[in-house]
Design a protein that fits this description.
The protein is of the alpha/beta class. 44% of the residues lie in helices and 18% in strands. The strands form 3 sheets. It has a 6-stranded parallel sheet with strand order 2-1-3-4-5-11, with helices on both faces. The chain binds beta-D-galactopyranose and calcium ion (CA).
Length: 354
């Protein structure tokens, strides 16, 4: 009898435990819940930092009474191994969509395998994986901008400044002596921007003389250091500085400031991105122009794409992944256009509404 009682008590406890566990494990309906895991390559990168702020805003906007949105951000601080671990953690934490700004754009396999195992789609952004990797699985997308377009626009802006006689040919030799400050080697936005800016200037009939090209990894302090050395070598021969991004253009300006060059004795500087500091420098006339890398629209495209994936659609109004650049790859790529920025329109970009 005593034994029976104990058996009954144990059975009751077992049933209670099973019921409890089942309730505890109950997941929110996937279609009513978006949990984004965002992995970025380096938050100390000015543009990426401002981009992440836009992404937060955009994911926040998706939330509604019947639709829960959450987001966790991880910073790999420049290490691909760290990023692989962070993606593992994001998956373990229950993310149902991953937004990945790869550290090494040529090395996404570990992340793709981790996500694929759990069937969690990945939206890569800003650092474009190579096409073969994008073909590894259907659940891979890319949101970014067309590097070639930014280079062409920078070249056009430079050509406009040179042709309107504002600056440049200081030594009146009929050529523009220029310096390039380049982003990370191997990044799609580095070599392609440089090549297209230079080719565009040449196409516009400008005769160029390249003094030097130096890598400064998108970074203002590194660009300042490089530029100090370059000025030491070429002194007032430099007439134009083309930088692959605003931070490096600003670093070059810092170098001239540090060496006490008056503004009129400095070359013409052009950047790309339209970061807050970059736009302010354009407004102040320190930077001749920049090319707006539309972080607001790119962030919006990521959020809308994430929503449509979670809700089970492949595309949504306004976020139609295009096949334009890759031809054979369907519904995987979204490229947002760049725009030219000069002192005439820079203020409008500082308070850019969506
Ligand atoms: C570029 C941007 C750079 C840097 C880089 C990082 O698109 O122009 O400033 O942020 O991305 O991948
Ligand atoms: Ca000259």
């Amino acid at each position: 009898m005593e034994l029976n009682k104990r058996r009954m008590a144990l059975l009751a406890l077992f049933v209670y435990t099973v019921v409890l566990c089942a309730c505890g494990r109950q997941q929110p309906d996937a279609k009513n819940h978006l949990y984004a895991g965002v992995a970025c390559y380096n938050k100390s990168d000015t543009f990426i930092n401002q981009f992440i702020t836009c992404l937060k805003d955009q994911f926040d906007k998706l939330g509604a009474d019947d639709f829960e949105v959450s987001m966790t951000i991880r910073d790999a601080a420049g290490s691909q191994r760290t990023q692989d671990d962070q993606v593992k953690e994001l998956i373990a934490a229950g993310c149902n969509i991953l937004c990945v700004n790869l550290v090494d754009r040529a090395d996404p396999s570990e992340i793709i395998n981790l996500a694929r195992e759990k069937n969690i789609p990945i939206i890569f952004f800003n650092r474009e994986p190579v096409a073969e990797d994008m073909m590894q699985w259907d659940g891979l997308y890319y949101v970014g901008a067309d590097a070639e377009q930014s280079g062409v626009m920078q070249g056009e802006l430079a050509a406009d400044v040179i042709k309107t006689g504002g600056i440049a040919d200081r030594n009146k030799d009929g050529k523009i002596q220029f310096v390039i400050l380049e982003g990370e080697s191997g990044h799609q936005d580095a070599i392609i921007r440089t090549k297209n800016a230079v080719d565009t200037l040449k196409k516009q009939g400008i005769v160029l003389e390249k003094l030097c090209c130096s890598i400064a990894n998108w970074n203002r302090a590194q660009a300042q250091n490089r530029m100090m050395q370059i000025i030491g070598q070429y002194q007032n021969k430099i007439e134009l500085v083309l930088a692959n991004n605003d931070d490096m253009a600003l670093g070059a300006i810092d170098a001239y400031k540090k060496l006490n060059y008056t503004e009129s004795a400095r070359p013409v500087f052009l950047g790309i991105d339209g970061t807050d500091a970059g736009l302010e420098a354009v407004i102040e006339g320190k930077l001749a122009g920049t090319v707006y890398n539309d972080k607001e629209k790119q962030a919006q495209a990521i959020a809308k794409l994430a929503l449509s994936i979670i809700k089970g659609k492949t595309s949504d109004e306004g976020t139609k992944p295009s096949t334009e650049k890759t031809g054979d790859v369907k519904n995987k790529y979204i490229y947002l256009p760049y725009s030219k920025v000069t002192s005439g329109n820079a203020a409008g970009f500082l308070e850019k509404p969506l």
